[in-house]
């Protein structure tokens, strides 16, 4: 029998929260067909409070083929998409009660972005670790004190509950679910089909260093930011950075902080840690080589930085999140 995936969206939802995972599961079906695999395919069901067109925040509409009250009895995965509509739905007792009643019929329950508000309102995340879009984590934690909110990861699994960060993180979560069902080879094939450059592990941060920092207003500083991202191993002492943009070290340090919200040292340290994590996740390079290529220079420095920020050694991190 096929695995029934019920994807729930609401009026004024975020379209990509729904369509991203939907396309992942559809591409998985295509990959299974191409392999002539006898493994279970996905039966995809889009649902909402009522059947019919469901307007999204972007202005487009998607069609819900089922209402929440008329879903298949057996559900493999119940996935709640986010957006403004999901946050509103999380305050509506009838909708929340319906989701709470559906959850025991599903093998696993998941959310994308602020779909986590619906799951939490239904009591489905009580005592569990969860995440949501970073801009809503504080409000989520205040509203649902019984949920352990982790604002950093791309997605979180706690038992049969899966929650993901904002928008495109739903694609990462769906790929992880496909890998869980059919193995890494098929998940990688789906990622290639969708031209997803790297399948991000759940433990990755919602932010890369360039996202954490603001983009500088001045073109020379923006160009320097891009160069640092491309070449984290390059020399980054304050004097050489200032020289590259034609400023004195003192003036450069002040302007960089004012325009990006980070000191040059903090920006470089963050992007080097990002580079090291990416290399550990996606390559089989030795720890020594990862340290050199990321600009952290020595295994001791790499170990210290990873342990300070993530609580894992390089080998532990690769064992947990590596894809090579």
Summarize the structure.
By secondary structure, the chain is an alpha/beta fold.
Compile the SSE list and pairings:
Layout: E1 3-8, H1 15-34, E2 42-48, E3 52-55, E4 61-64, E5 66-67, E6 75-80, H2 84-89, H3 93-102, E7 106-111, H4 115-121, E8 129-130, H5 137-143, E9 148-149, E10 155-158, E11 161-164, H6 169-182, H7 184-193, H8 209-212, H9 219-230, H10 238-244, H11 249-260, H12 264-282, H13 287-294, H14 299-310, H15 314-321
Helix pairs in contact: 1-6, 1-7, 6-7, 10-11, 12-13
Please indicate the count of domains: 2
What is the CATH architecture annotation of the largest domain? 3-Layer(aba) Sandwich
Total DSSP E strands: 11
Q: Mind summarizing the main beta sheet? A: 7 strands, mixed
The secondary structure category is: alpha/beta
Span between N and C termini? 32 Å
Global mean pLDDT: 91
Helix content: 40-55%
Radius of gyration: 22 Å
Shape: globular
If you had to describe this structure to a student in words, what would you say it looks like?
The chain folds into 2 domains: 3-193, Class I glutamine amidotransferase (GATase) domain (Rossmann fold); 208-324, Homeodomain-like (Arc Repressor Mutant, subunit A, Orthogonal Bundle). The mean pLDDT is 91. The strands form 3 sheets. Strands 5-2-1-6-7-11-10 form a 7-stranded mixed β-sheet, with helices on both faces. The chain has a two-stranded antiparallel ribbon with strand order 3-4. It has a two-stranded parallel ribbon with strand order 8-9. By secondary structure, it is an alpha/beta fold. Helix content is 48%, strand content 15%.
């Amino acid at each position: 029998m096929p695995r029934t995936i019920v994807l729930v969206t609401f009026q004024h939802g975020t379209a990509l929260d729904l369509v991203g995972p939907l396309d992942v599961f559809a591409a998985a079906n295509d990959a299974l067909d191409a392999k002539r695999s006898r493994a279970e395919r996905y039966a995809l069901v889009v649902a909402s409070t009522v059947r019919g067109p469901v307007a999204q925040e972007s202005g487009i509409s998607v069609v819900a083929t089922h209402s929440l009250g008329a879903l298949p009895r057996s559900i493999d995965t119940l996935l709640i998409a986010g957006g403004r509509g999901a946050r509103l739905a999380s305050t509506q007792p009838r909708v929340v009660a319906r989701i709470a009643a559906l959850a025991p019929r599903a093998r696993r329950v998941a959310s994308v972005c602020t779909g986590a508000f619906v799951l939490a309102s239904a009591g489905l995340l009580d005592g569990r670790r969860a995440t949501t879009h970073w801009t809503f984590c504080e409000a989520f934690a205040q509203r649902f004190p019984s949920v352990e909110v982790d604002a950093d990861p791309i997605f979180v699994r706690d038992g049969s509950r899966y929650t993901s960060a904002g928008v495109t993180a739903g694609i990462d979560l769906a790929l992880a679910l496909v890998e869980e069902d059919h193995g890494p080879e098929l998940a990688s094939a789906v990622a290639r089909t969708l031209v997803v450059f790297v399948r991000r592990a759940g433990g990755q941060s919602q932010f890369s260093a360039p996202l954490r920092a603001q983009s500088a207003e001045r073109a020379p500083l923006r160009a320097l930011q891009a160069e640092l991202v491309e070449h984290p191993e390059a020399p980054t002492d304050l004097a050489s950075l200032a020289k590259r943009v034609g400023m004195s070290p003192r003036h450069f340090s002040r302007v960089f902080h004012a325009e990006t919200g980070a000191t040059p040292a903090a920006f470089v340290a963050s992007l080097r840690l990002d580079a090291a994590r990416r290399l550990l996740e996606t390559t089989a390079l030795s720890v020594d080589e990862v340290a050199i290529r990321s600009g952290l220079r020595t295994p001791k420095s790499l170990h210290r930085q990873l342990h300070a920020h993530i609580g894992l050694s390089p080998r532990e991190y690769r064992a947990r999140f590596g894809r090579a």
